[in-house]
């Protein structure tokens, strides 16, 4: 069980001149069910990355609470908005380092690297890879951990369509294989519809939930562009009722 | 590497040639001996065993004070770089010691602790610690927050974080501190020996100075300079290259 409830009384960053900036979040609440796949949409600069940072526990400077339904912190993978690899460690070391030490860890890391299509690059240093390849290493690192809670911040930008489609499938397989709760930030509403079973659209500031949409599509229907477009109309706010989608 | 060694050899040969010409032109070999006279002096001190004994004694002092200064200076610098409070409290002391003349520190150490070995090593180390601290403070202050957050999220723990995240970021700063440190330490060690030790290169130089024996002075200077250069080429540079192999 890895559902969670985020309650933010207030989150504001200190301003440049010492005072406080207007708050990014005020009396904000988001509930995420166990094994849900929630996509988070919202304009740039609203605070989506900040929200993931607070959930991941790297940003503790806010009032509010974080409740995990099983009472302890789950095993978290966080695929950051930038790859955040260790430039002085090889691809293989980067993926293997978060894993518990053991004979098994290198094997798992190799498998994860092959899964993202980078077999053969294990011994390369990250700065010699293209940005898209670095992103895929970061994904391999996040997936290899076998997380209970998977946080992803625009993980598929700067990738080509074929790779993105492959990684979407990989993500689906990963989630199907193990109970995983996913929170996925993206600017691409089509991608959100294709992947998520719930889409939360934020507006602000301060950020509030403008629309909270359950995606009523089966895995097969998600491959049909027409179906995707119909739900997308709802997401971007062109249609107001679920009936229009289902009808 | 090979061509760089070649260029160094040519450059050194030119230096020796110019020196030789000036010495011949000047004519007073007691004040400015020719290269062969210096080599003669080198052979004489080497045969008596004095050269190796004194080089060894001095090298041991260099090593001890260098390690002491690097350890304490790094710890202090990292503390100052990570904690703003510590930097506000202790930072001004570092600046004070940075600007204190080496001679003052040496004399005070000898006056307060006596003409003993530990006072000599401490005097050299104290001279060097502020430099190391300032360099490492810079390094610690520029540590990447992004990577620290990554390590925290993925549960690296303190040991893995230190080894794979923090120390590699500090490596260039260690190298810079070590390089400038070696140059500074061995110069100060000679002064310390001259002022208060009964052996070592510094002591021998003083004896030679009293006898106006310029050839022996130069012989010691070159022997020791050669060793320091060998340490730089044989240890520091290869280590730096290995530590930088990931760069594009
Ligand atoms: N460390 C920080 N210090 C000060 N302000 C910050 C800091 N981090 C983020 N902010 C501010 O908080 C706001 C939200 O930033 P955040 O990165 O969460 O946006 P975002 O929704 O992820 O945007 P994008 O879609 O462009 O990634 C921005 O206005 C940003 O300037
Ligand atoms: Mg962001």
CATH superfamily of chain B: MetI-like
Q: Name the average pLDDT of chain B.
A: 88
* Helical residues, percent of chain B: over 70%
SS-derived structural category of chain B = mainly alpha
- The number of distinct helices of chain A, counting runs of at least 4 residues, comes to 8
Estimate the helix proportion of chain A, in percent.
25-40%
Strand and helix order of chain A: EEEHEEHHHEHEHEEHH
Q: Under CATH, the topology of chain B is which? A: MetI-like fold
* Radius of gyration of chain A, taken over Cα atoms and rounded to an integer in Å: 19 Å
What does it look like?
The complex is a heterodimer of chains A (247) and B (248). Chain A is of the alpha/beta class and 247 residues long. Chain A is built from eight helices and nine strands. Chain A has two domains: 4-75 and 149-246, P-loop containing nucleotide triphosphate hydrolases (Rossmann fold); 85-146, no CATH class. Helices cover 33% and strands 22% of the residues of chain A. In chain A, β6 (149-153), α5 and β7 (181-185) form a beta-alpha-beta unit. In chain A, α3 packs across α4 (131-144). The longest helix of chain A has 17 residues, at 161-177. The radius of gyration of chain A is 19 Å and the shape is globular. By secondary structure, chain B is mostly helical. Chain B has a single domain (37-247), classed as MetI-like (MetI-like fold, Orthogonal Bundle). In chain B, α3 (50-82) runs antiparallel to α4 and α8 packs antiparallel against α10. Chain B is globular. The A-B interface holds A 53, 56-58, 76-78, 80, 82, 84, 86-89, 93, 97-98, 125, 127-128, 141, 145 and B 146-147, 149-150, 152-156, 160, 164-165, 168, 243, 245-248. Adenosine-5'-triphosphate (ATP) binds next to α1 of chain A.
């Amino acid at each position: 069980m890895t559902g969670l409830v985020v309650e933010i009384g207030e989150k504001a960053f200190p301003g440049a001149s010492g005072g406080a900036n207007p708050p990014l979040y005020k009396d904000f609440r988001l509930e995420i069910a166990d094994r849900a796949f929630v996509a988070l949409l919202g304009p740039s600069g609203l605070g989506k990355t900040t929200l993931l940072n607070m959930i991941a526990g790297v940003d503790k400077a806010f009032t509010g609470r974080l409740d995990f339904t099983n009472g302890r912190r789950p095993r978290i993978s966080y695929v950051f908005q930038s790859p955040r690899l260790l430039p002085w460690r090889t691809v293989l070391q980067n993926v293997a380092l978060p894993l518990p030490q053991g004979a098994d860890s290198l094997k798992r890391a190799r498998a994860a690297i092959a899964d993202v299509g980078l077999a053969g690059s294990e011994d390369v240093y990250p700065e010699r890879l293209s940005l898209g390849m670095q992103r895929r290493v970061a994904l391999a690192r996040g997936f290899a951990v076998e997380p209970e809670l998977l946080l992803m911040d625009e993980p598929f930008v700067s990738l080509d369509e074929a790779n993105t489609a492959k990684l979407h499938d990989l993500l689906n397989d990963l989630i199907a294989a193990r109970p995983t709760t996913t929170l996925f930030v993206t600017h691409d509403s089509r991608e959100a519809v294709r992947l998520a079973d719930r889409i939360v659209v934020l507006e602000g500031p301060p950020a509030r939930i403008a629309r909270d949409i359950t995606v009523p599509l089966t895995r097969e229907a998600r491959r049909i562009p027409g179906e995707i477009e119909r739900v997308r109309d709802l997401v971007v706010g062109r249609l107001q009722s679920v009936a229009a989608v289902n009808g | 590497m090979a061509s760089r060694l070649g260029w160094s050899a040519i450059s050194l040969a030119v230096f020796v040639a110019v020196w030789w010409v000036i010495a011949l032109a000047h004519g007073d070999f007691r004040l400015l001996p020719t290269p062969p006279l210096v080599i003669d002096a080198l052979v004489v001190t080497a045969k008596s065993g004095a050269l190796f004994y004194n080089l060894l004694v001095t090298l041991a002092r260099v090593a001890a004070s260098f390690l002491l200064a690097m350890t304490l200076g790094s710890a202090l610098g990292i503390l100052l770089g990570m904690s703003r409070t510590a930097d506000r409290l202790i930072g001004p002391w570092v600046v004070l010691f940075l600007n204190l003349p080496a001679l003052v520190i040496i004399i005070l150490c000898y006056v307060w602790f006596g003409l003993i070995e530990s006072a000599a090593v401490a005097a050299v180390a104290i001279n060097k610690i502020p430099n190391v601290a300032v360099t490492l403070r810079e390094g610690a202050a520029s540590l990447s927050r992004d990577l620290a957050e990554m390590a925290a999220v993925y549960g690296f723990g303190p040991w893995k974080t230190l080894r794979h995240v923090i120390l590699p970021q500090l490596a260039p700063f260690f190298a810079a501190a070590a390089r400038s440190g070696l140059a500074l330490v061995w110069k100060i060690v000679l002064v310390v020996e001259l002022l208060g030790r009964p052996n070592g290169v510094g002591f021998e130089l003083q004896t030679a100075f009293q006898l106006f024996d310029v050839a022996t002075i130069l012989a010691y200077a070159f022997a020791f300079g050669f060793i320091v250069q060998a340490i730089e080429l044989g240890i520091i540079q290869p280590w730096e290259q290995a530590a930088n192999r990931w760069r594009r």
